[in-house]
Write a structure and sequence with these properties.
222 residues, eight-stranded antiparallel β-barrel, alpha+beta
């Protein structure tokens, strides 16, 4: 017997609430920037960790099953925005919003097939700026909320849809980034991340599916 899924109205409302909170944070930052003195603005221009950024990534995604299915990793991509706000010294708060492809190749739906799950991720990360051998290094960690957008599979025996999965997942992000100068004010970065889900995303009571992935990310902070 399948678990009852929340109504679509609830799912869309929850997603828009998260989006609204993110937008309000960005708007609040922009408003604060308008009232800053010239000296404060000059300090921010020297610190690229306080601005908006964009990032693209490739991830190798797997799944941890309770049942012993034959399974293998698949490759997906991600794209999104990030925002860094300085909290204290080298410590920053970094909320993000990203479109992420994950999934697995497995026998979960009968024949060995690739199942792809497309999510909108909302990590809220703490970042710590370090200098190692003269290079700028950022250590990052924090929780994330993921909203399922779509699901599909190349299985020939079963049609896979979002009804086979739960609408939301919650998990963690751990990673490290290396910062490289791009021009006077902007920075390019490359990052390696380990991500995983805390929740069982399989809507079937007979199975348990937890996501995990390794991601390589590159981006630009303005």
């Amino acid at each position: 017997m399948r678990r009852r899924k929340p109504p679509k109205e609830f799912r869309f409302a929850a997603l828009w609430i998260v989006l609204l909170c993110f937008a309000l944070a960005v708007t609040s930052y922009a408003a604060d920037d308008v009232s800053e003195t010239d000296s404060e603005k000059e300090m921010k221009e020297k610190d690229p960790m306080l601005n908006l950024g964009m990032q693209l990534g490739l991830n190798v995604a797997e799944a941890k099953f309770q049942t012993d299915y034959n399974n293998d990793a698949i490759v997906g991509f991600s794209a999104g925005l990030l925002f860094r706000y300085q909290l204290l010294g080298p410590l920053n708060l970094q909320p993000e919003v990203s479109y992420v492809q994950r999934g697995v190749s497995s026998t979960r739906f009968g024949d060995f097939a690739s199942t792809r799950l497309n999510y909108l991720d909302f990590p809220v990360l703490a970042t710590l700026n370090l200098t190692i051998s003269g290079a700028g290094v950022v250590v990052l960690a924090g929780p994330k909320l993921s909203a399922l957008l779509s699901a599909n599979s190349d299985s020939t025996s079963t049609t896979v849809t979002t009804r086979d999965f739960k609408s939301f997942d919650a998990g963690y992000v751990l990673g490290v980034a290396v910062m490289l100068p791009f021009n006077d004010n902007d920075q390019f970065f490359v990052s390696a991340r380990l991500e995983g889900g805390f929740l069982d995303i399989d809507s079937s009571d007979a199975n348990e599916w937890r996501s995990k992935e390794v991601r390589a990310v590159a981006g630009l902070i303005f």
